[in-house]
Amino acid sequence: MVAYGAEQRVRVPALRAGWLTQTFVHWPYRPEAVQALLPEGLAADEYEGAAWVGLTPFVMAAVRPPGVPATMPGLPTFAETNLRTYVRSGDGRDGLWFLSIGVAWPLMVAARAVGAPYNWGTLRVSTGRHTVAYAGSRRTGKASYRLVVRPGDPIAPTERDVWLTSRWRAYTRRVGLLWETPVEHEPWPLAGAVVEVLEETLTTAAGLPAPLGEPVVHFSQGVRHVRLGASRPCFRSAGA
Fold first, then answer.
1. What are the DSSP calls for 1-46, one per residue?
2. Quick one: pLDDT band at residue 239, thresholds 50, 70, 90?
3. Residue 201, Cβ neighbours under 10 Å: how many?
4. Among 74, 124, 134, 239, which residue's beta carbon has the most beta carbons within 10 A?
5. Cα separations (Å) of 219 from 11, 88, 188, 224, 232?
6. What is the per-residue pLDDT across 191-220, written as a single tens digit (0 to 9) for each?
7. For the whole prediction, is pTM greater than 0.70?
8. Does the domain at residues 15-233 carry the CATH identifier 3.20.20.70?
């Protein structure tokens, strides 16, 4: 069972931010289809016999180093879109593996240095009276998406809801090693959501086949107290 609250404290964050206006669109896949896209040392995590891939657009807000208040004027705020899946490392701990990360702030692409698959692109998030609309396209290649959702009422998260939305470390691979980046934030406040428009080529660009079924969708107003720790090698993981 994945923890609803953060599994660890990030006492000395490398970066602080808010993740706001976030939608989670999750598809089930055959585990072997996802495993084929993972590096050595990571195994596809499963829920009820399926691996899951999530499209998660949101607003990255007030990005700052530790010690800088979120109210300081001029802090960068921009749209980001992740295509992610859920994995376990050789020591059995769960986390995220990013198949792609689209970002509207070009300086974030420097995070490729730690193995994160950032792509600079044109991304938009707009909120209407009853809907939230997202769109994005890469500056290189043809991968793009358009998503419009109608958020519903807040929900009490089920075990599956928590499993799909709550992870407390991300894995990357560089210089032949598996690395992990810890994260801490308050639990996601989740609501149901209905998809009104969904057009995307991100999954096929990542090498995924057709999913096993229709997506599971959640919306969240977001979390404002995100603390990202420094990346560190996973020497305990197989293949690292």
1. ---SS-SS--SS-SEEEEEEEEEEEEEEE-HHHHHTTSPTTEEE--
2. very low
3. 14
4. 134
5. 28, 25, 9, 15, 31
6. 999 999 999 999 999 999 999 999 999 999
7. yes
8. no
